[in-house]
Amino acid sequence: FVALSLVNDPKVVFLDEMTTGLDPASRRVAWVLIRAIRERGATVVLVTHFMDEAEHLCDRVAIVDKGRIAALNTPQGLVATYAGGVRVTFSTDHSELSWLGQVPGVSNVSRSGPRVEVQGTGPVLALVAAALVERGIAPLDLRTEQPSLEDVFLRITGGGVRD
């Protein structure tokens, strides 16, 4: 329970880079306070460069690039529209894995030494895992990397260093 009182009980609260410079524990406390403000019925406009913060706290996110709104949607909607699928990674010493390209939803398979990366959409983790087990391959480090709002931001803004 957080007791929170704001002067004049505002309907809109603007928070500009509120958590910049905070340690992780203090940052989470700030998140609790932001949620408490929202639960009291206020609209919170949160300006942040921390994409994980926006994913956790925001109902809608505007990606601003060069002073203009480049994209506006829910965090999940932005990820679904712009991030381009999931990555499944694992290590194996099996040399022949070209058959992974035939697994439904798989769009690309690449390898660097023992590390394999499979890109795809839909339930690609489950389908790749089933195909691996079917061929007697059970990697201990099989995992999926879901695209994030940070991936979306970098894709929309070009992701490079700017002047």
Written description of the protein model:
The model has no long low-confidence stretch (mean pLDDT 91). This protein is an alpha+beta fold and 163 residues long. The strands form 3 sheets. Strands 6-7-5-8 form a 4-stranded antiparallel beta sheet, covered by helices on one side. 31% of the residues lie in helices and 26% in strands. β6 and β7 (115-120) form a beta hairpin. 13% of the residues are buried. The protein has 5 helices and 8 strands, in the order βαβαββαβββαβα.
Any chance you could write out the topology, listing elements then pairs?
Blueprint (H helix, E strand, L loop, with lengths): L11 E5 L7 H16 L3 E5 L3 H7 L3 E5 L2 E6 L1 H8 L3 E6 L14 E7 L2 E6 L3 H11 L8 E3 L3 H9 L6
Parallel strand pairs: 1-2
Antiparallel strand pairs: 3-4, 5-7, 5-8, 6-7
